[in-house]
Design a protein that fits this description.
CATH architecture: Roll
Radius of gyration: 19 Å
Mean pLDDT: 87
Oligomer: single chain
Helix content: 40-55%
Strand content: 35-45%
Number of strands: 6
Length: 144
């Protein structure tokens, strides 16, 4: 009976350790997500792109771009015109030790009138760093 209790205690302890590790990784992804929007809102295209994988897939409504160079070409005019987005983080979840997904709502406050939508980021861990492997953004149609 004591050995069964000991085994259960070890399993529970290991489980708590794994959950804590996941929480730390999820926090790391969420911190990186904050960096994405901070760079965007200060108009820092280069800093923004550093958060993306070299071959990232970037899907904005019905436009799809692959790679940092294509993303830069697409976003340069938006950044130059003062693109501003308020992002509200809803959740980050690890899918594996090297893959995570985060999603949230966002408001493009630089648009007149402001436009609401959502974003889903797929993250991969490269070395010790998390980068966006794919972004899917959907904007709500303008109110009539």
């Amino acid at each position: 009976m004591r050995s069964a209790f000991l085994v259960m205690a070890i399993i529970l302890t290991l489980g708590v350790g794994i959950a804590a590790a996941q929480s730390a990784e999820e926090s790391a992804v969420t911190s990186r997500l904050d960096e994405v929007y901070a760079a965007l809102n200060r108009g820092d295209v280069e800093g923004y792109l550093l958060n993306y994988h070299e071959d990232a897939v970037y899907a904005i409504v019905d436009n799809v771009f692959t790679g940092r160079a294509d993303i830069a070409t697409f976003e340069s005019s938006s950044f130059a015109n003062g693109l501003q987005i308020e992002y509200t983080h809803h959740a980050t979840r690890l899918l594996s030790p090297t893959t995570a997904i985060s999603h949230g709502s966002q408001v493009m406050t630089s648009a007149t009138p402001p436009v609401e939508g959502h974003a889903v980021h797929t993250w991969v861990k490269v070395g010790n760093d998390w980068v966006v492997a794919a972004l899917q953004v959907a904007w709500a149609p303008p109110q009539q």
